User: Fold these one by one.
Assistant:
Number 1:
Amino acid sequence: MFLKFILPLGLSLILLTLPLEGKPGKGGGPRKSGFKRGPSRAFSPSSQKPAGNFGKSLNRGTGNSLNKLTGRDRAVSIQRQNELSKFQHRQQTAQKLRDLSELNGNENLKSVADKMDQRALDHFEKRNAKIDQLAQRGTETPFDQNQFADPLDQPLTERQIQKLNDPALQQQHRLLNEERKLQHQMQVAQQIRDIAAQNGNANLLQTAQKMELTAAERYASQFQKILGAPATPLTAPLP
């Protein structure tokens, strides 16, 4: 009678001490618990394009690893992420122009999109080469976080642009101002498209499409005009 009560109690205590998740058996049997592990999320470099790989490696640095960086290393990491973000955003804008080109049979938009892509890639590579150069100066050089920033990130008015002594820099700032206008107009058109989709309003959808096409054609015109025009003389009258 005594063993009748003791044995079930002992078995219960043994079961409570078993781990929640055991190892598979020799025959590949199921785990002892009902919890299952999710699929592996390891990154495979060969599964992405070069720009994508670079972005993945940088995105890893935005978490705890970036928080561990200080001084020059942190500034370098942050600026590399900024450059990659700008590059990918410009690629998306160029692709939008290509899409509009196919929908409307406008070969000029496709030509401008290809030039945008190339200019974006050239700038991305130059910026990263500059960051590499600054990063390799060593700790003996006085550290200034602003030295890694892209001077083109700061928008300039037309009056300020005309005061620049470098014709190529004038050109770049004007193109970037037009790019900012294009991106803003595309965002507004996308908001209208979202509202049209929610309400099933075909007229709003057409309005959004016309806005996008008009903005893209205007940008293409300004893009070619700026690249084809000589630099503005410093003594030129301002509007």
Number 2:
Amino acid sequence: MRRNSILTFTIAFVLLGLTAAPHAFAVHKGVAFVEPTARKALQIVNDYLKDADSFTVTIQTVKDEVFEGTHQKIQYAGIHDLAVRRPDRLKIRSRGDLGEIRVWYDGSRMTILDIMDYNIEPDEVLGDNMTYSYLEVPDTIDATLDYVAENYGIAPPLITLAKENPLAILNEMATSGFYVGLNYVGDVLCHHLAYTMEDVDVQLWIENGMAPLIRKIVITYKKEPGFPQFEAYLSDWNFSPHLPDSVFKFFKPKDALLVPMRKIEDEGEEEK
């Protein structure tokens, strides 16, 4: 990771200075706004992650699903391993209550392996219930993630962390934000910050130390029935991982079934 002592000192100094911020909602003369300390914290974390040539992180998530009518909430848990080598390598392994999905991106092709595919009928499943799809994609992580999200609706949990400016959307679209205080995530003391956007509320817990690592994220979907939440705990950050090209290469399992990827508009045409 490209760091220097001046940058590290600045990060620690500014984040420690957050403790002096008032524990109050960011409202000035009746109008919501993002407090300068909350805005600065986003920029610090964004710049720290942006400065990484490569990294790995493990993300444990819990997501609410709200039943229509009763508004009863059911939680589904998952564990996601993310490996990033900028500008053009990405690997994701997501496993949990709803099955397992693995993603490889090698700079020109994205391949997705679905270990338990709920999109096909049981009598169509071959081998060990594995299907895979692939797409020819752009030559950078940022362009690829935008392309697959816009055209195929593919957006793995917290995948924006892999982008060049991972917190840019939150920084640009937050309508209010404030410093909550020093709180723990497990046994790690963190700066707790809260932000609002048009459709969601976002809370961040940033480690209180020399490295401003994100340790927890909570997203509340305030315009959806029942106000479902997405909660993520981030651990095992590594900014000096060994990530050779072979890590990002897909090797087809023997019994995996190839399933063509369909664009969002193609699925819409079939429903008419």
